[in-house]
Amino acid sequence: MKFSKTGTALRKWSRLIHRDLSYFFSGMVLIYAISGIVMNHRNTINPNYSVERQEYSITETMPPQAGMKKDDVLKLLAPLGEEKNYTKHYFPKENQMKVFLKGGSNLMVDLSTRQAVYEKLTRRPLISALTKLHYNPGRWWTHFADVFAVGLIIITVTGLVMVKGPKGLWGRGGIELATGILIPLLFLFL
């Protein structure tokens, strides 16, 4: 009987702790889950910026590479509405000019063919912030993330012991636990 009361009390406290920590850390779980999905697909989704690419032909007259000045470059940026965002320009190859703009956008111009490629970068407000937290932006976040990790351990342990019987650790729950451990191990070793 004593074991039964101890087991019941343990499950009761496990439910309380599990519930309260789960509510408290649910925001962190969502942050890491959403940013983790985006980071898993970094080759197709830029988590920090949305990139718009526009190709077009320049109709305005342009001086040759040797005579290209800042004012000439600003005239090229005016139709794009980027003349106030100019930072610098240079020539990586003969007759090719690259213009850097504030915020990471750029303009690449082939001076011989007058073909231009404008890449506009726009910061993704929510996803970039979540990804920044996932990458650990500083020491204060490290401490909170460590507390979160300990909280996840406690949530896991309390979740393992709070259900008894055939759905608990010694029944279906144990099979699900073993499967959940086995899958990452298979990926790790295969």
UniProtKB/TrEMBL annotation:
The keyword Protease belongs to this UniProt entry's keyword annotation: no
Keywords: Membrane, Transmembrane, Transmembrane helix
KW rRNA processing (keyword) present: no
InterPro entries referenced in this protein's UniProt entry, alphabetically: PepSY_TM-like_2
Transmembrane segments: 21-39, 140-162, 169-189
Domain of life: Bacteria
Protein name as catalogued: PepSY domain-containing protein
Organism this protein belongs to: Bacteroides oleiciplenus YIT 12058
